[in-house]
Amino acid sequence: MTTEQSLWLRRWQALDHTIATLLDRYEAFMNEDSTRRENTIFEVLFQLQKFAAGQFHFFYDGFYTKTFVNLAAIPDDRNFVLPQFITGHSIEQHVLYNTLRQIAEDTLVIQLASEQRLISIREADVGLPGNEKIPLTLADVDKLALTALRMVHSYLENDKQTVLTYFRRSADVRVIPYAPVALIGIPITTIGLNSGIGVAEDLLAIPHEVAHHLYWNGRADSGQRIQAELLARITDNPASHWLEEIFADVVGCLIGGPAVARSFIDLQLTSIGADFVHSHDPHPTPALRPLLYAYALEKMGFVNSATAVRGVWQQHLEARMTFVNRALLFAAFKIVDHVFEVIDQKSLTPSLRWSNDDIAYDTLYEHFAARIPDLVQSVSDADLDPEEMNIQTSWLDLAMELSAQPQLQNLPAGWTDPANIGGAAGFSAIPLDAAAWLRIYDFGGWITAGPGPKQVGG
């Protein structure tokens, strides 16, 4: 074993040990307090451990020992289906680094979701009199987020989807292929709502993050994954690099209504100088992004809100003496049209929408804050933690679906056990072409960095 091989193996062993330690700790808390949600947290972490073992050993073995799988080199061919990975040299180090980084990130997020619940519960106990109706705990925020997920439930093939929230510096979502759970990071500025301190409008980022979860985990009426369905529709569109973010903007608007549009106007105003008109980022150009919200609201039939958003944004554009790139704007409008073709408004549940067209623009935030308690109360503890989460899909099943390589099912039992690597007598390693194993590497958006397309997830 080379020093390089030993280094990657020891890193994996350290991560696996950490996950096992956390599992032991969380198992001790199971069934003690439903607000801590340790049953779901334990199950998600357990599934991560199984998935991570398959993912790491697939590449470790495929690159080095070649006992069970033999991963072909990336061809130096401009017609290769994934040309962004053609580097002229091997990328083993890159693949293993990003794989272990994602495992570590998921582990830390799940740990945060558990540990922060202790602080959240204690903080709730010191709320000021007269403010008890405003939710604070992460369990309350979980319920609020689940109302957003329920809006698009019909597009998620697993009927036991749930959410798990945690505090971070800004909103974010972790795309995980191994459990039907949306891991949503919410701004830490929302802490203290029951004391009249937290910022309720910062919760309006949740529908956008739920939409990212749907983009990677949902299926269109055709049966195809939503991401693949939309990619097939936008060939040659100059705004195609904004696809995921435009989808999240539109679906977030369908879930959250005009209050979400207002919150994104405020977000765009944080960009200054060249960043305000830059068009190469995976996020739509800040100067035109609110106009996409106005267009989406109009297609929803929210004419009053669409007019208000356009009017407010035009004032900001004039103040900054900025002209919108109309060619890119109309290309982005076309993507919005495609999103509405894939996501049918009639399949959603209007009663769960966070805000509607009958609210004045200047009072959208206050109306949303007043509605939070009712939205939270519409979800029970049992809704958050279904007894059967239907997450027993194996790494092999997931990998075969992504790579369309059914021969993977011939991997012998226990192939991810380190003791078996290099010792499978009589087993002929499965050859796998680069196009197949690169799809397994990305795993439907799980990898968020690297020479491939950057999945933004935020």
Provide keyphrases for this structure.
458 residues; mainly alpha; 3-stranded mixed beta sheet; two-stranded parallel sheet; 50% helix; 5% strand
Short structural summary:
The protein has helices at residues 3-29, 38-65, 92-124, 138-151, 206-217, 226-233, 243-256, 258-268, 289-299, 303-319, 326-342, 364-377, 381-384, 395-403, 434-442; strands at 69-71, 162-168, 172-174, 181-187, 430-432.
Detailed description of the structure:
- The chain has helices at 3-29, 38-65, 92-124, 138-151, 206-217, 226-233, 243-256, 258-268, 289-299, 303-319, 326-342, 364-377, 381-384, 395-403, 434-442; strands at residues 69-71, 162-168, 172-174, 181-187, 430-432.
- Among the domains are: 3-123 and 388-442, no CATH class; 222-343, no CATH class.
- It contains 15 helices and 5 strands.
- 50% of the residues lie in helices and 5% in strands.
- α1 (3-29) runs antiparallel to α2 (38-65), α7 (243-256) crosses α8 (258-268) and α9 (289-299) runs antiparallel to α10.
- It is mainly alpha-helical.
